[in-house]
Design a protein that fits this description.
The structure is a homodimer.
Chain A: H1 3-15, E1 19-31, E2 35-47, E3 53-56, E4 65-67, E5 72-77, E6 81-87, E7 92-107, E8 115-118, H2 121-130, E9 140-147, E10 153-159, E11 165-170, H3 177-194, E12 199-204, H4 209-218, E13 221-224, H5 227-244
Parallel strand pairs in A: 11-12, 12-13
Antiparallel strand pairs in A: 1-2, 1-7, 2-3, 3-4, 5-6, 6-7, 9-10, 10-11
Helix pairs in contact in A: 2-5, 3-4
The structure holds a DNA duplex (15 and 15 nucleotides).
Chain lengths: ~240, ~240
DNA sequence: CCGTAAATTTCGCCA
DNA sequence: TGGCGAAGTTTACGG
């Protein structure tokens, strides 16, 4: 494809806020928070209506180079076709130099659909707060996101049926030994603050082998709870809310 | 575009390991580590030769849904065109249901170029090890990635010209109060271990306002060093290496 | 294959 | 606007 023709089509598409897909042979240079260079090769370049820029090689999940939403696009043409995407804060520039253009396509895309994600860690916390008995009978949450000194935040802080303090750490994936260590640090902070050692419970779908050892070692409890079960609880809760209105 | 025709082109492209770009109106469902649903809308779907799958909405850096490299792609056609991308470990399935196809393109892309990223945190460490005087005259590194008890790793551990121990923490971005606190924890660990308090230096392009307070408070030193300067030092070093051969 | 740390992380929430 | 923490994080690098 003719470079001049390509340049014109690209300029038009950007002006009319279309979703651009450009396939070609290009070099890429990036300068900003870091710096990178990428020699000549065939790639797919996407320029979105919001100023996002993505350059994808033939392999991998991540783009090899990119510019986040809001960047300003410039199309330059002399002997070669160059596309620059600039950002001011932080100051970054992405320069794409084409030696061949295989394809330029642009689309007006309409996408108003809602994206719904189920069972994040936040969802798990909500589910526990909505139905604390899934941790154990008589468990009463007191605070969420409680500050533990300067080392972090306790997911849920509460008391059990016997009145003992309980520190709950939630993970949507299997708990690691790192997670256990973090929880131990919270326990120590709470012990400093209240003068007595709290119970500590990791709530997660499972525990990694290495973490199981540490649970034993530090006297941390484990309560199995899957994100899926939390999603169910939230659905029940929503149904209830609607019923009560 | 005809759905049956599209299905055939997509199957062909996948068989011959081409880079696929499909633009159309689609619904998306994901089930795996989490779950998500996305209603009907216009999007760009990319399927890479290595089995990566990316679905991009008209805005944002991140794909709304995806499947990492190595997933198995299936193209199903009855009354609708459905593409499924499956992964076994962890078990995940991405299902894309098309109601319209605007465009199907596929490409044989050749990209053997080397990607070079300059001045990561690792590069900064290398630069300091290569030329310790950029920290201060007489600074001698002893160990890198030194374990500090069970709380983490010290970037560079060394001694100054007066023989005092020095703990160096490197950041490629401005240092935060969290970084200072982490360094303080290292200092305490080293003091426990050696029975004397080491000097502690944060090496970074700058410090956040909140961190500046804490530097004062804990007696932590700061040495300004930009990733860019480190990249220069590494270039000089490489030049030297070549010269010495 | 597990574990750890970094990332041009991005993204969302909240002060 | 900045700070903080999660993410279907991914990726790279050890052991």
């Amino acid at each position: 494809m003719n470079l001049a023709e390509a340049a014109e089509r690209i300029r038009m598409a950007i002006r009319s806020k279309e979703f651009l897909v450009i396939v070609g042979r290009m070099e890429v240079n990036y300068e900003g928070r870091a710096s990178s260079t990428l020699g000549s090769g065939d790639r797919v370049l996407m320029i979105k209506p919001d100023g996002s820029v993505l350059i994808h090689r033939p392999t991998g999940y991540e783009p090899v180079n990119w510019q986040p939403p809001g960047s300003k696009i410039e199309v330059l043409l002399d002997d070669r076709l160059v596309i620059e995407a600039r950002r001011v804060k932080p100051r970054e520039i992405l320069r794409i130099i084409f030696s061949k253009i295989y394809d330029v396509s642009s689309y007006k895309l309409r996408d108003e659909a809602e994206f719904a994600m189920y069972a994040t860690e936040e969802d798990m916390r909500k589910a526990i707060l909505m139905k604390p008995s899934i941790i154990e009978d008589g468990f009463k949450p007191i605070e969420r996101e409680r500050k533990a000194g300067d080392i972090g935040f306790i997911d849920i802080f509460g008391v059990d049926s016997a009145g003992r303090l309980v520190v709950v750490e939630i993970k949507r994936r299997n708990a690691t030994s790192e997670d256990v260590k973090q929880l131990v640090r919270y326990v120590e902070k709470i012990e400093e603050e209240f003068g007595k050692r709290p119970r500590a419970i990791i709530v997660a779908p499972g525990v990694q082998r290495s973490a199981a050892r540490e649970l034993e070692l530090y006297g941390i409890e484990f309560k199995a709870l899957s994100p899926r079960r939390c999603a169910e609880i939230l659905r029940e809760g929503k149904g209830l809310e609607r019923f009560l209105k």
